[in-house]
Amino acid sequence: MKKVIVILGLLIVSYSAQAQKLVGLGTLIQGGVSDGEKLISAYILPLNQALMVGLGNSSFNGFYDNEDQHRFSLSLNTSFINIPNKFKSFDVNSLGLESVEPKDPTETIAQTVFGDSATIKLASIYGFGITNLRLFSIKTISGSEKNMVPLPYLNATYRIDNFTFSGQVIPPLTLPNSDIRTWLLGGSIQANAAGFMPTLAELPIDIQLAAGYYFLGGHSDLEVIPDNVKINVPLTDDRKGPYDNQELQIKYNSFYTSIYASAKINIFTPFIGVGYSLGFSNINLTGTYPVFTKSSNSFLGLRAKDVEDPFRNAVKYGRIKFEGGGRFDFGRFFGQVSYTLADYGGLGTSVGIRF
User: Fold this and answer.
1) Range of the domain at 168
2) How many domains does one find in the chain?
3) Which of 93, 292, 295, 353 could cross-link with 303 by S-S, CB 3.0 to 4.6 Å?
4) For 245-278, what is each residue's pLDDT tens digit?
C-alpha cells in the first residue's frame, strides 16, 4: 500500500502543473468583473471539460465467473486525459470584451491553461477620443505547456453474483509547491446483462452494463493585490481591503454510463465499449478583489475599488465515448490497459490485486 501511495503522489505532481496555473485566475478580474468572467471562462475551458468527463474514460472493472473466489480487488488506476489542440488557445477578440482589448492589435491569441508560455497585454479601451490613451493594462495568464492531464485514483471493488460495486478515492492532499488542496470520491456499478436476460448467456461474448458518479473538489488561497496592474493616469483609490480572504473553490460532479462486450481468453480479456459522460462544474472566486474602472470624478482618471465574490461559473459538458482495451490476470494480480476515443479521451491503466 505504501508503494501505491508513493506512485499516486508522483502522478499528482504532474497534475499539479495545470492546477497551479489556476491560482492566477484572480488577476484577470482586475480589468473589470464582466471582462474578467469572460477571460477566466475561456482560460479554464479545457481543464473544466477534461475533469468533467475524464474519469469516465476507463470504467471497465473486469468480468469473472460467479465461481471465482476472489471477491475483492484494490488497484491504482490512472486516466491520462488528452487535450485537443483546438482547446489550447483562444482569440481574445471573440469574447466581446467591454473594458479591455489587446494592446497590440496583431496579438489577439491568448493561451488556455494547457497552452504555451506566451502572454499578451490587455489595455483599457477608454480613449476619450485621444489616440493611444491607455488608463491601465494587465497581462493574460500563460499555459502549462501540457498535452494531457494524468488523473490517478485508488479503486476498490466488491463482486457479488452478477454485480461488481466499486469505489474511487483520491485522499485529501495539498499539491506540491502550491496551496491547492484537492480530493476525489466516486462510485460505480457494473452488471452482467445475462443476469437480466438469460438468453445472452448463450453468446460467445459477455455483455456488461456500467454506470458511475464521481466528485472532484479543490480549493486554494489566492493573492490578488493592486500591484499587479500597471497604471498610467491619476488614480482615485477607493480600495479598503483586506485581500487575505481570497479563495478559489472548485467542484466537479460527473455521471457516466457504458455498455461493454468482452470475451475471456485464458488470462486475457479483451473488451470494447461505448458510453456517455455528463459533467457539471462550479468554479468560484470568493473574497475581496481590487478592480480598476474609469473614474467619474476625473476626465483622465482611474478609479480603484473593491468587489466581493466576483466570479461564479457553473457549466455542464457531455460527450459520447468509444473504448477498447484488454485485461490480463496473473493469479491474484491483474493489469489493464484501455484507450478512449473522444474529445478528452486517452489512455487508461490499472494495476491491482484480487483477494
Assistant:
1) 2-354
2) 1
3) 295
4) 888 888 999 999 999 999 989 999 999 999 999 9
